[in-house]
Structures are given as structure tokens and as C-alpha cells.
Amino acid sequence: MAGILFIISAPSGSGQSTLVSELRKQISGVDFAISWTTRPPRGSEANGREYNFTSRDEFQRMLDEGVFLEHAEVFGNYYGTARESLEEARAAGHDLVLDIDVQGAAQVRAKMLEAVSIFVLPPNPRVLRTRLRNRSRAEGVVNEEEVYRRLNAARMEIENYREYGYILVNDVLDRAVAQLEAIVLAERFYRNGEVIAYRSRRVLEVAAACLQSNSQERLKPVLEAFGILESTDQQQLSFDEDPDPEDSEQEDSGEDNEESNDD
Known about the structure:
Blueprint: E1 5-9, H1 16-26, E2 30-32, E3 36-37, E4 52-53, H2 56-64, E5 68-74, E6 77-82, H3 83-92, E7 95-99, H4 102-111, E8 116-121, H5 125-138, H6 144-158, E9 166-169, H7 173-192, H8 200-209, H9 216-225, H10 245-251
Parallel strand pairs: 1-7, 1-8, 2-7, 3-4, 8-9
Antiparallel strand pairs: 3-6, 5-6
Helix pairs in contact: 1-7, 5-6, 7-8
């Protein structure tokens, strides 16, 4: 059975790594492409687990040799996905998930029109800031300058949401995981005729609701909060506001402690 290529992009700290990890626990036959990067390991990261860590010179050599399916420079470091990951998944008949930033996603979409693209959004800047701070604390250092740099970059990345077929708002982790699972199962059903074993109609309805074309009302408050749409009935959240204690408790539900290509 032919494997499907899934592209997932999100601003740093949106929880996409957690979503992919939970997806792979629930659905078999889904491989994950471990990216190459020139940035040093952080915290408990291990080579070959979160990333394949390498030097800038070695990365450039691999790039010159055409090793990468996509590559990008993000926050001063290089990231790339080896073509070998896709070849191995296809040989096994598995789906492949790429967790890559908007630059790399654009490269893959240009080469592989059949790829399924999914954009993950945090519900608002305040939640994203809390997740970024919590991740920094887990690594032992809170760098406010770095947090705000990533917040500012998030807005620019979110402006690319129109380039993606599906949209997820990661406000409640369990719901976002269920939506991601539904997208994968629905795509397998439509493309490969794979039977959905449980509540097939509901699964297809959940996936359809996540299509960008069906997500405008759900997206509106998120885009307004990030200043991408002009706010009409709510106040735009400032990146400089400190979260309320109640917000911090709720925001932890979608926290992503493992970062991906967009970090």
C-alpha cells in the first residue's frame, strides 16, 4: 500500500512534536523523519533521537551532494530532511511525517504535489509565550530575549497558514491529537481505500472540519490575537502582557518540551 507524506509546520513552541509523538503511539505504519541540524543539543537531547546533530561544514557537504529533500536556515542554524527518510518509508509502505518549518514545507510542496500539509497553531500569543518559557525552564535557562524573538517570528510564520490543506489549533492537547489522527485516517481512506475500523463517519467529519476551507470561523480569533486579521469583537493580545495564573494552568496542556525544525 502506498505511503502518504504528511508535512506538519508550526511556530516554535506550538506543540507539534508532542502531537506527532502521540499520533505514532495511536496509529501504526507512521514513520517520522529525524532532521539534521547544525545547532548543538539542548538539555537531554540525544543524537539520532530528537535530531541528527552535525557541523556546518558537514551539513554543507551533504547539501552539495543532494542529500536533503528540503533544508532551511532557522534562527541562525541549518536544518534539513534527508531524502533517505522518504525512500525508506516508501519501501516499507509506511506513511512519513515531516515536522519542518514553513521554508522547508514550501520546498517539499513544490517537489511533491501529493503531500498532505498541516499547519498547527497556538491559540494566542499568551499561550505560546507560556509554552516557550516553560520549555526554557525545563532546559534550565529562561532567556526572555529568545522567547520574544520566537514570538515575533511566530506571527510571520502564521501568515503562511493559507498554504496548508489542514489547520489544527492546539489549545486542548487531546482534541488536537484526535484531529491529527482523523486527518491521517481520512487521507488513508480517500487515497488508498484503507478501511477506518472505528466510527468511520465521525472520523471523516472531524478531518473535514480541519480542512483550511472549513476552518475560517475557528481560525478568526487566533489570527486576530496575533494581529493577522483586524480584530472586531476582541482585544488583540500583546506579546508584552504577562499571563494570568489561571491561564498558565490551562496553557500547560498543550506544552511542547521537544522542539522540531522550526526552533
